[in-house]
Structures are given as C-alpha cells and as structure tokens.
Amino acid sequence: MTTLTSEELERRFQEKIDENQYIEPKDWMIEKYRQNMIRQISQHAHSEVVGMLPEGNWITRAPNLRRKVALLAKIQDEAGHGLYLYSAAETLGITREELLEQLHSGKAKYSNIFNYPTLTWADIGAVGWLVDGAAIINQVMLQRASYGPYARAMVRICREESFHQRQGFEIMLTLCRGNAEQKEMAQDALNRWWWPSLMMFGPNDKDSPHSAEMAKWRVKRETNDELRQRFIDRVVPQADFLGIKIPDSKLKWNETSQHYDFGQINWDEFYNVIKGNGPCNRERLKARIEAHEQGKWVRDAATAYANKRKNKAA
How far apart are CA 301 and CA 299, in angstroms? Predict the structure, then answer.
C-alpha cells in the first residue's frame, strides 16, 4: 500500500475543495483547516446561544401575547441553532465540554453585537431587522462552505433566520406607523444598532487575519467588505420605507459604483468590545456561566437515565 506524503495529501485536499466537493469528518484534512473550522463553528454556536440573552430580557415585557409567542419561538430557534452548530463542531474532534469551557473562560469569542443592551421594545425589532438581516447575508454563502456538516446545518439556520428578520422588520414597521413617541423609539433603536450591525461583518479585508485562508478553503466565498456593502445597499431602502433615518451623515448613493458610500466605522469600539470592555460583556458571560451551573442537575439526570437504559439493554 502506497503511503502518501504530506505534500500529496495537501494537494488532494485542496483539489477536492477546488472541485466543490465537501470535506467530511472522516476525510483527511489539513490541521490548520480543522482548527480554523473549530474556531469559526464554535464562535457561531456561542453567538447563537449568547444571542438569546438580550432578547430573553423582553419575554415578560412583550407588548401583547402575539409578540410574546413570536419572541419565544425565535429564542427557541436560536437555541436549536446553537445545538446544530455545537454538533457540527464536535465532528472535528472537540468535545462539547471543551467548547463550553472555552466560552466560559473567555478564550472563545462570540459575535460582538450581543454585548449591547436591548433598552426598549424597539430594540427587539432592530435586532431582528438589522442583526438577523446581517446574519443572513453573512450566512447564506456558508450553505456552500467546504466543510459538509457546517454547510448542511446552515440550510435550516438560514431559513429560520429569514423568518427572524421579517419578524423584526414588522415590529419596526408597526412602531413607525404608530404615534410620534413610537416612531421616535424606532429611530432611537436604529441609531444605536446601526454601527454595531456593520461591525458584524468583521474588520476591513486588509485587516482580517483569517479571510485569505478561509477563502482559499472555500469556507468564505465573499469578503467582509463585499458582504457589508450588500447589507447597506439592502437596508437603506428599507429604512426609507419605514421613514426613519440611518445615522450616517456621509451615506449617499454613488452613481458610478452603483452602491451607497458610507462613513468610517469606529474600529476602536469594535476592538474594545472584543477585549471584553463592551456595555454587557461581563453580564452576558456571567449569565451563561450561571445557566450552565444551574443546569448541571438536568445533565446529570439525563446521563444517569441514558446509562440506566444502556445497562438494561445489555
């Protein structure tokens, strides 16, 4: 039996990706690819789970039963997304316990956007409209990511995120068609969530440390700046329809490029939040750790029951 050299294995690995074939868990893969996939998928999973917190804050304060039921369904979806993604990460040889330990210790990151507070009901609309809208643009391409379990998980996630975006826009539309105070609330939410939403796409391409490799391996098929521009081009007409103003004095349509020009993003704020200094970083992590500790008895009971059934079957 011929033993392939590492160079030959790497060549075949890249050829498979270039031919748009999936890399599956039992396939040979470059170690750096495996580590990068663990980093990306786990960060995505953590973001889904931590992202439940700012919305969960409004379950008991939703304005009516219809809104409460819809918000509960959305948060339940986010929990499911986290489970799909943790399961996908586990196929790369890391355990759930390791993934959660990395989150709780601060070693692993989650999306910066969830370190901002939801101060009013309009924030729930803005999160759905802007944050989930940005997530859809970021994630649609991941349905064609080169790692099979990740790509397949993204199919259902994208469908459900599309519903979440529509739900958020409908909340904003209702507020903007309400009285002056309600419309002002919607404008205030847009003012606070606009720039953090643009930061969701990550640093500018020239400053993004992982983009080149992830593009080579066809995990990401479009750049941060391309995706951010698409988001802006899509959302500006929606804001016009709502009758509220995007908080960017430099925002204007460019006839030459056929895109909107926009102002400078505050990258100092972006990196400050990454370092743990955002408005809610400590609060979010504390809540996740407490929930994990309080749920230990459920995990222990489920494990004991599974072992009992296994022993009976034996």
Answer: 5
Which of 90, 82, 172, 176 shows the shortest CA–CA distance to 124? 172
Q: Dump pLDDT digits (tens) for 43-98.
A: 999 999 999 999 999 999 999 999 999 999 999 999 999 999 999 999 999 999 99
Non-local (6+) Cβ contacts of 93 within 8 A are: 34
- Helix, strand or coil for residue 113? helix
pLDDT of residue 1: 56
Sign of CA dihedral 33, 39, 42, 47: negative
Q: By the 8 A CB rule, do 146 and 15 touch?
A: no
C-alpha torsion sign, points 182, 186, 187, 188: positive
CB atoms within 10 A of CB 27: 13
CA distance 260 to 142: 25
pLDDT tens-digit readout, 206-262 = 888 788 889 999 999 899 999 999 999 999 999 999 999 999 999 999 999 999 999
